[in-house]
């Protein structure tokens, strides 16, 4: 299987770059590789922090809708389970994480970025949780991650599903810093290295305390809600909405 991630190390910082196609679209295999990369970074004592970014000019355009349409109900169920697991794993990762949002971060790509401890965004990029606009419900972990990042602005982000420019994302708390594209990676590496100097146990405990309410809601609600979410993603009406969305995207090109 062709690799869909690029993993490298710069001193104490592990860099995980999404590298699937032109827009780093998320599928089951990418989620599996991301889980494995995070496990490796967690177990490696030389890694003190992680930077998550996208290869090329896009962070991630979100879930690969072609795979959902072509894969049918069984694939949709696997995908929702994979999203739940990967979103929660990244959100609860015990070491510092920084998202270097080098380009568009849409839907699932936005959730991956928001799951990180710090989000540093390219000035020309766009970011947004567009699931409802596409026509699919959120897994519990996705909603809770957006809530953690955006607080009182969460309903605006979720219900409108619009893509935010960098300055609006900054004002909403969705990202922490905005820089010119060529400076995003360097600044993200510096932020990760700085966070990595904190005492590991003290950092892990502080992160656990800060994120406990969100994680408790994820773990308490996911079994019931995500089962319904998976059924809706797998339904015929949703499949038709996704096909319509793909047609609109193709027409836009």
Give structural notes.
This protein is α/β, with parallel strands linked by helices. The chain has a domain at 5-181: Alpha-Beta Complex (2-enoyl-CoA Hydratase, Chain A, domain 1). The chain is built from ten helices and nine strands. It has helices spanning 28-43, 65-91, 108-114, 131-134, 140-150, 154-160, 166-172, 181-195, 200-233, 236-252, and strands at 5-10, 13-18, 49-54, 97-101, 105-106, 118-122, 126-128, 164-165, 177-179. Helix 1 (28-43) packs parallel to helix 2 (65-91), helix 5 packs across helix 6 (154-160) and helix 5 crosses helix 9 (200-233). The longest helix has 34 residues, at 200-233.
Count the DSSP helices. 10
The count of strands amounts to 9
Specify the overall morphology.
globular
Uncertain runs with pLDDT below 50, 5 residues or more?
none
CATH superfamily of the domain at 5-181: 2-enoyl-CoA Hydratase, Chain A, domain 1
Mean pLDDT: 94
Query: Sheet with the most strands?
Result: 6 strands, mixed
Question: Brief overview, please?
Answer:
The protein has 253 residues and is an alpha/beta fold. The protein is built from 10 helices and 9 strands.
Topology:
Blueprint: E1 5-10, E2 13-18, H1 28-43, E3 49-54, H2 65-91, E4 97-101, E5 105-106, H3 108-114, E6 118-122, E7 126-128, H4 131-134, H5 140-150, H6 154-160, E8 164-165, H7 166-172, E9 177-179, H8 181-195, H9 200-233, H10 236-252
Parallel strand pairs: 2-3, 3-4, 4-6, 5-7, 6-9
Antiparallel strand pairs: 1-2, 7-8
Helix pairs in contact: 1-2, 2-3, 2-5, 2-9, 2-10, 5-6, 5-9
């Amino acid at each position: 299987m062709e690799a869909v991630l690029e993993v490298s190390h710069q001193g104490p910082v592990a860099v995980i770059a999404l590298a699937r196609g032109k827009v780093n679209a998320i599928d089951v295999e990418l989620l599996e590789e991301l889980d494995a990369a995070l496990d490796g970074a967690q177990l490696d004592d030389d890694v003190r922090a992680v930077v998550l970014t996208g290869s090329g000019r896009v962070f991630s355009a979100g879930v690969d809708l072609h795979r959902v349409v072509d894969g049918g109900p069984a694939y949709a169920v696997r995908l929702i389970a994979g999203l739940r697991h990967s979103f929660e794993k990244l959100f609860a990762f015990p070491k510092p994480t920084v998202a270097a949002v080098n380009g568009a971060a849409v839907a699932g790509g936005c959730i991956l970025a928001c799951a990180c401890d710090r989000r540093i965004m390219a000035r020309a990029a766009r970011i947004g949780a567009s699931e409802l606009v596409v026509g699919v419900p959120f897994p519990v972990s996705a909603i809770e991650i957006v809530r953690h990042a955006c607080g009182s602005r969460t309903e605006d982000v979720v219900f409108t599903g619009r893509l935010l420019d960098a300055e609006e994302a900054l004002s909403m708390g969705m990202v922490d810093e905005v820089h010119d594209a060529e400076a995003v990676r360097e600044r993200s590496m510096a932020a990760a290295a700085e966070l990595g100097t904190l005492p590991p146990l003290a950092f892990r405990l502080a992160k656990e305390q800060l994120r406990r309410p969100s994680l408790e809601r994820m773990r308490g609600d996911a079994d019931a809600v995500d089962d319904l979410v998976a059924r809706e993603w797998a339904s015929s009406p949703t499949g038709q909405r996704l096909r319509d969305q793909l047609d609109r995207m193709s027409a836009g090109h």
